[in-house]
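User: For a reading group we're discussing how well predicted structures match intuition. Take Small ribosomal subunit protein bS21. Before you show the prediction, I'll give you the sequence so everyone sees exactly what went in.
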Amino acid sequence: MLIIDSKDCENIDKALKKYKKKFERAKTLTQLRERQSFTKPSIKRRAQVLKAVYKQQIASGKIEA
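Assistant: Thanks. Here is the predicted 3D structure of Small ribosomal subunit protein bS21, as structure tokens, for the group to look at:
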């Protein structure tokens, strides 16, 4: 549960902005999306390897981002 401490004179927009930032940092939404469907560990590892290869190719100059 997220709790936002707001001052009496604080604008509701600022409080809402703080809540959104805190919600984003908690990564609640990403966890929910991950739990909606099961992905095999081998597929997760393959995605990590492909991402690492892509980053290396960008760093070496073979691919322009």
